């Protein structure tokens, strides 16, 4: 799955245990104004998971920080710095998305109503087509029955018999 990158948020991997959000902020502030710094915690140990995110106000600052800090050393560890992918939480129309599951509730309900309306219209159209076909079949049957009646009448009509014989003779 090809996810768009966030050009002003950087993923910083390879953080030493001693590095906290304040130290990470200090390491990246020379490249520009920072909007946010996060180091996600491991729920079991309550320590960061050796990576963090630095969000700059400007994309150009993030690009400069990535160029300069990728492969740099901080507290004895080599950093890996890349553009961050959007946060992935369960939910949304696409399964994994950057919004909570309820964020698309309105569009989901709207789509459900549209689908129900389409199904209702298709059912109406199908019923109308079936009724038209049945009417056509009845009309064709009546026409065939009418032709047979005319033939029978013609066979029993003395004037029609005389006309037919005159046409054959002439």
Helix and strand succession? EHEEHEEEEEHH
Determine the number of helices (DSSP H or I, runs of at least 4 residues): 4
Overall 3D shape: rod-shaped
Kindly state the percentage of residues in helix: 40-55%
Oligomer description: single chain
Number of domains: 2
Commentary on this structure:
The structure is a single chain. The protein has 170 residues and is of the alpha+beta class. The chain folds into 2 domains: 82 residues, Alpha-Beta Plaits; 64 residues. Helices cover 49% and strands 19% of the residues. The protein has 4 helices and 8 strands; from the N terminus they run βαββαβββββαα. The strands form 3 sheets. Strands 2-3-1-6 form a 4-stranded antiparallel β-sheet, with helices on one face. It has a two-stranded antiparallel sheet with strand order 4-5. A hairpin with a 5-residue loop joins strand 7 and strand 8. The longest helix is centred in the C-terminal third of the chain and has 52 residues. The protein is rod-shaped and about 120 Å long. The relative contact order is 0.11. The mean pLDDT is 82. Keywords: Coiled coil, RNA-binding. One of its GO terms (molecular function) is RNA binding. Pfam families: RRM_1.
């Amino acid at each position: 799955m090809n996810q768009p990158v966030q050009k002003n948020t950087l993923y910083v991997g390879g953080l030493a245990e001693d590095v906290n959000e304040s130290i990470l902020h200090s390491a990246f502030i020379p490249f520009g104004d920072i909007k946010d710094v996060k180091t996600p915690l491991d729920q079991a140990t309550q320590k960061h998971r050796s990576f963090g995110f630095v969000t700059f106000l400007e994309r150009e600052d993030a690009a400069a920080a990535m160029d300069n800090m990728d492969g740099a050393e901080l507290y004895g560890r080599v950093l890996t710095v890349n553009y961050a992918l959007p946060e992935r939480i369960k939910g949304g129309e696409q399964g994994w998305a950057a919004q909570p599951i309820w964020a698309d509730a309105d569009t989901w309900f709207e789509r459900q109503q549209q689908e129900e309306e389409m199904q209702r219209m298709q059912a109406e159209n199908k019923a109308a087509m079936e009724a038209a076909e049945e009417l056509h079949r009845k009309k064709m049957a009546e026409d065939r029955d009418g032709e047979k009646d005319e033939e029978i009448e013609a066979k029993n009509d003395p004037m029609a018999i005389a006309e037919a014989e005159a046409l054959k003779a002439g």
